[in-house]
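[Automated response] Your request has been received and processed.

Submitted sequence:
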Amino acid sequence: MQTDTLTLAPQTLVADDLSWQEDALCAQAGPEFFFPAPGSSTREAKLLCGACEGRLACLEYALTHDERFGVWGGLSEKERIRLKRRQG
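Generated structure:
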């Protein structure tokens, strides 16, 4: 996924609605998958996120709640920071 082209439609998702978690693919994997050790690959987590229907809701949640660690909505910490900066 190219994060340079990712944009979120404002107010299309309700960040406090956590219903997306019920069917999220990450619920089937352990937390270590999405919170890897520093320097470890996030590739597998991002691939799983890419197939998840709740990806955008997850990303919106992470951005709204300033989640600083792990892969959320298919983006790493650094990718989310860059996205927030671009959205200003």
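Summary generated for your ticket: Residues 1-5, 9-13 have pLDDT under 50 and may be disordered. The chain has four helices and no strands.
If you did not submit this request, please reply to this message.
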